[in-house]
Amino acid sequence: MITTTDLSKVYRTKDRDITALDGVNLHVAQGEMYGVIGQSGAGKSSLIRCVNLLETPTSGSVTVDGRELTALARRGSRGRPKRPTPQLRAARSSIGMVFQHFNLLSSRTVRGNVELPLEILGLTRRERSRKALELLDLVGLADKAGVHPARLSGGQKQRVGIARALAGEPKVLLSDEATSALDPETTRSVLRLLRDLNQQLDLTVLLITHEMDVVKSVCDSAALMRDGRVVESGTVPELLATPGSELARELFPLGGEVGGPERTAVDITFHGDTAAEPVVSRLSRAYDLDVSILGAAMDTAAGKQVGRMRIELPGRYEDNVVPIGYLREQGLQIEVLPATEPAAAPAVSAAAPATGLAPAAGASEPAPEVAK
Ligand SMILES: Nc1ncnc2c1ncn2[C@@H]1O[C@H](COP(=O)(O)OP(=O)(O)OP(=O)(O)O)[C@@H](O)[C@H]1O
């Protein structure tokens, strides 16, 4: 539904050129909720603004719903569009946008704000009113139609912003840090609303955020951006199945100090109904091993249960090839951590943290050993 190919954006300022996007290739499938995460300055806003051509990319292409928007834009001087072409304007109507600070008009009522894009689309007063009330009902705000934004909570303002974004019946919704200004409870309810709309309307949602919890609670897929590049991307299960994935580590941080070179540390990821713990006790019994559980995390990602566990086996990797093979045979995803020197930091924290959004290691207490 959304494809960017070699997308680059360079801001030319008086003093220097700033490369905000450096060859971004992204593919968001129809009906997907796709989260782009990264630290401040990574290029997330530039990406989302280039997707709907609010910013003109310096090079590369953007295709939304089969239309190459970059080809529809007429370039003006210094890369700025002179004016959107009618074709670009029409294509943009299939893209809704939700902003961090809501961008509501304080002089208009809630209904008046939702009606604004409908006026631009040329609907009659009666049609506008009917449609706006329908949209307000969809976001749970039918009773606030006549109220001005100043009398709404942050979450309610964002719901109005979402209703307004849906006015043109878009196929794609772009969300620029839509929950960053909201408290955790309100964040959860707005994310639930976005997820419901995604499912009810088969809406494709591209959201940018700096919060891993946002990705974890609603996204089917995610990309990690750094210095204008996508450094990792995929569906959440794919990321969890990728050895060494930074996103997987940040989504499900595992704690636990690894004991040293005479120990083998293994990260186990399990999905859905597979539970690791009985497998670990079976392993312990079958191979007469003292298995230590260093850390564990159970959570849901995009509505599916996912768990991770870090265990430690006595002996080097060479001594544990057979038990590790046994774990793999159980259908669990296994990642063996590189051996560490006794005084060295755990391998995971040595490679950590890309986003700095969550601790990668040392977050939880070591659990007792599994009984043999
Ligand atoms: N209009 C602009 N003119 C010049 N430089 C800009 C402009 N917009 C963004 N930049 C620069 O481009 C880089 C990427 O910025 P961008 O806002 O896309 O990142 P971001 O990941 O969204 O960050 P944040 O989370 O802080 O919004 C930064 O170095 C920023 O300073």
TrEMBL record:
<dbReference type="InterPro" id="IPR041701">
    <property type="entry name" value="MetN_ABC"/>
</dbReference>
<keyword id="KW-0547">Nucleotide-binding</keyword>
<keyword id="KW-0472">Membrane</keyword>
<dbReference type="InterPro" id="IPR027417">
    <property type="entry name" value="P-loop_NTPase"/>
</dbReference>
<dbReference type="GO" id="GO:0006865">
    <property type="term" value="P:amino acid transport"/>
</dbReference>
<dbReference type="InterPro" id="IPR017871">
    <property type="entry name" value="ABC_transporter-like_CS"/>
</dbReference>
<dbReference type="InterPro" id="IPR018449">
    <property type="entry name" value="NIL_domain"/>
</dbReference>
<dbReference type="Pfam" id="PF09383">
    <property type="entry name" value="NIL"/>
</dbReference>
<keyword id="KW-1003">Cell membrane</keyword>
<dbReference type="InterPro" id="IPR003439">
    <property type="entry name" value="ABC_transporter-like_ATP-bd"/>
</dbReference>
<dbReference type="Pfam" id="PF00005">
    <property type="entry name" value="ABC_tran"/>
</dbReference>
<dbReference type="GO" id="GO:0016887">
    <property type="term" value="F:ATP hydrolysis activity"/>
</dbReference>
<protein>
    <submittedName>
        <fullName>Methionine ABC transporter ATP-binding protein</fullName>
    </submittedName>
</protein>
<keyword id="KW-1278">Translocase</keyword>
<dbReference type="GO" id="GO:0005524">
    <property type="term" value="F:ATP binding"/>
</dbReference>
<keyword id="KW-0067">ATP-binding</keyword>
<dbReference type="InterPro" id="IPR003593">
    <property type="entry name" value="AAA+_ATPase"/>
</dbReference>
<dbReference type="InterPro" id="IPR045865">
    <property type="entry name" value="ACT-like_dom_sf"/>
</dbReference>
<keyword id="KW-0029">Amino-acid transport</keyword>
<dbReference type="InterPro" id="IPR050086">
    <property type="entry name" value="MetN_ABC_transporter-like"/>
</dbReference>
<feature type="domain" description="ABC transporter">
    <location>
        <begin position="2"/>
        <end position="252"/>
    </location>
</feature>
<keyword id="KW-0813">Transport</keyword>
